[in-house]
Amino acid sequence: MNLNKKLGELEALLFIHGEPLALKKMQAVLEMKQEDAELLLSEFGKKLAEEGRGLALLKDEEKIQLVTKPEFNKVLEGFVKEELSGDLSAASLEALALIAYFGPLSRSRIEYLRGVNSSFILRSLLLRGLVERFPDPARQNAFLYRATFDLLKHLGIKGKEDMPDYEKFKTLLAAFESQPDLSHNPEEAAAAETAGQIQN
Questions:
Q1: Which one of 53, 92, 101, 141 has the largest count of C-beta atoms within 10 Å of its C-beta?
Q2: What is the distance between the alpha carbons of residues 13 and 57, in angstroms, rounded to a whole number?
Q3: How far is CA 16 from the centre of its chain?
């Protein structure tokens, strides 16, 4: 086993997942035996425990997750308060547009369409009351995100079908999903355009 490579793969996996990850899922994705996975987690935990690292590895018998270290709570609290009190960023508008037009969507689907980790942005939208999440009936321990009634009221519409060019963007998404070899540029274009419409 190439330990350094596996450490990088594990860090990338936990970063993009953003939520507690089942150990069995981690072993399957990284194609590792249980004993090798336990060694990898031990080494990864030691590296994160070093002084100067901002993250820690949270682990129980079944799941693991990347979390921030308690000593950084003060700076993070200030950052979160500032983010929630200010205007929505372009990235937040992009995620909100995707959810409003194409929701309900899973976090992994949102991140696939955007191409970046969206955990913080989704938490911000949840706290602002613009989106809500609910259990995915098709997947255990997974959630879907959808626009709230407050967002629809703010936009002055009765339902998402009343949003500008709703059918156009639904058709665009359907065309994209029917051709899996295409890049996700169509969604990015749709997100950018609809984000501008929501902002206005």
A1: 101
A2: 13
A3: 7
Which parts of the chain fold into alpha helices (H)? 3-17, 23-30, 34-49, 73-85, 90-102, 107-114, 119-127, 149-155, 166-177, 185-199
Fold of 3-71: Arc Repressor Mutant, subunit A (1.10.10)
Residue 145: predicted pLDDT: 93
Amino acid at 134: F
Class of domain 87-199: mainly alpha
Measured at the CA of 30, the angle between CA 122 and CA 43, to 5 degrees, comes to: 90
pTM of the model: 0.56
CB-count exposure of residue 55 (10 Å: 0-12, 13-18, 19+): middle
Tell me the C-alpha to C-alpha distance, in Å, between residue 57 and each of 49, 122, 168, 169.
Answer: 8, 22, 44, 40
Tell me whether domains 3-71 and 87-199 share a fold. Answer: yes
pLDDT tens digits along 137-189: 888 778 899 989 888 887 788 777 888 888 888 888 777 767 654 444 444 44
